[in-house]
Design goal:
This protein is α+β, with helices and mostly antiparallel strands. The protein folds into 2 domains: about 10-90, OB fold (Dihydrolipoamide Acetyltransferase, E2P), CATH 2.40.50; about 95-175. It has 2 helices and 5 strands; from the N terminus they run βββββαα. The protein has helices at about 95-130, 140-170, and strands at about 10-30, 35-45, 50-55, 65-75, 75-85. Strands 1-2-3-5-4 form a 5-stranded mixed beta barrel. Strand 2 and strand 3 (about 50-55) form a beta hairpin. Helix 1 (about 95-130) packs antiparallel against helix 2 (about 140-170). The chain is elongated and about 65 Å long. It starts with 11 loop residues before the first strand and ends in a 7-residue tail after the last helix.
C-alpha cells in the first residue's frame, strides 16, 4: 500500500520562461461518474524541470514567462501553484469544500460503524472465552481502524489544501478561487 506524503519542505518560488512543455492527463478512479482527471504540465524553467498537477487544464504555453511556487524533490520541482506572467492566469485553488464535507460525513459514519464493530468484537471476545472461537476477534481491530483511517485522510487533505493555499498566496493570489 502506498501512503501519500505531504512534503514538509519549505515552499519556494521559481520564475522563468517555459520550455520543453509537455501536457498530459492522468485518469484515476472508476466508472464514468467516479473518475478524476488530473492535468499534468511538465516543463523546464532554465535548467529546472517542473511538474504542475491541476484538476483543470493549465493555461501555459511554450515561451510564456511564469512564476511557480512549490518544493523540489527527486530532481523535479513540484509546483503547487502557477502564475502565467505573460497572460495573467493563476492556477485555480483546489475546491476542497465538498471533499471536506464528504470526509466529515464519512468520519461520522465510520465512527458509528467502528463503535458497532468494537461492540461486536467486545461481545465476541466474551463469547470466545466461552468457547465460540478466536476468529471473531477480527471485529475489534476493524472497529478501531476504520475511524482512524478516516481521520488520517481528513488531516492529509487539510494539510495538502493549506500548502496549495500558501503557494497561491506566494504568487499574489488569494488562497481561494
Amino acid at each position: 500500500m502506498i501512503i501519500p506524503q505531504i512534503s514538509n519542505d519549505p515552499l519556494v518560488t521559481l520564475e522563468g520562461v517555459v520550455s520543453s512543455l509537455r501536457l498530459t492527463t492522468q485518469v484515476s478512479g472508476g466508472g464514468e461518474t467516479n473518475a478524476t482527471t488530473t492535468h499534468i504540465a511538465l516543463f523546464a524553467l532554465g535548467e529546472t524541470r517542473v511538474e504542475l498537477r491541476l484538476l483543470t487544464p493549465p493555461v501555459i504555453f511554450e515561451g510564456d514567462r511564469v512564476r511557480v511556487a512549490g518544493s523540489a524533490g527527486n530532481g523535479v520541482f513540484s509546483a503547487l501553484a502557477c502564475r502565467n506572467l505573460t497572460t495573467g492566469w493563476l492556477s485555480p485553488a483546489e475546491n476542497s469544500g465538498c471533499v471536506a464535507a464528504f470526509m466529515v460525513v464519512f468520519v461520522a459514519i465510520s465512527l458509528v460503524v467502528g463503535i458497532a464493530f468494537a461492540v461486536i468484537g467486545g461481545g465476541m471476545l466474551s463469547m470466545a472465552t466461552n468457547g465460540v472461537g478466536l476468529r471473531s476477534f477480527i471485529f475489534l481491530p476493524i472497529g478501531l481502524i476504520i475511524p482512524g483511517v478516516a481521520v488520517w485522510g481528513m488531516i492529509w487533505m487539510k494539510r495538502k489544501a493549506d500548502r496549495v493555499k500558501s503557494a497561491r498566496e506566494m504568487l499574489g493570489g488569494n488562497g481561494r478561487l
